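Support request, please re-run this one:
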Amino acid sequence: MNTKFAVVTGASSGIGFELAKLFAEDHYDLLICSQSDQIQAAKRKLEEFATGTIAAVQADLATSEGVEELFANIRAANKPLNAIAINAGIGVGGDFIRQTDLEKELRLIDLNVRSTVHLAKLAGKMMVEQGFGKILFTSSIAADLVGSFEAVYNASKAFVQSFALAIREELRDTGVTVTALQPGPTETNFFHRAGMDDTKVGTDPKDTAAEVAKQGYEAMLAGKDHVVAGSFKNKVFSAMGKILPQTATAKIHRGMSEPGTGKH
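Re-run finished. Output below.
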């Protein structure tokens, strides 16, 4: 039995699955979670090469009950929690007032923001009590940009980024480190699920999920505060978001995310 134990949410595909793969290759026992029924297929793929145990929980983390169900499984593992990648998240694209669906946006807030706070509170307390642990939040370069046509999504990631860095400082002397992973556009199902297939950002070339996950994983192991992952262009956009007026980044973001801007 392996001595290291990690948890990854949103692990059925994309960045979450690639993070889970890295933990498995690094000889962790793993608990993976997703709302999707594909989580069992992800478990089987990981078991093909993992040296430790792989457990899967299908739970809707956009609900308090789903977060509590996941944490009950973490407790039931009855071992110290070395690392948790709080990665589950969704997007919604489109004109906020005239086009998008409110229920989808409220669900986005429940998953990207509310469940992140809820799970971080539970897992963080467990880590502080044991005196060690690593928390990796999947944020985004969207946290640094005013998100025209992804208004709620970018705001949710700005929350995650600020939250991660704040609790990192609070936990400075506890043995628990907090790292924010900031990917740019990544080759996952994200843009399709967000209804952004006809946007520039949806059709442009993207970073691979494996590349992004590797950079995030390495930053977490090193105890870094954050990493802007993927292409150099992502670093430019992140820096631009910190330097330019917010009205300017809102216009730039419009050019990437407005419906109808994609290549046909």
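The chain has one domain: 4-195+207-239. The chain has a mean pLDDT of 96.
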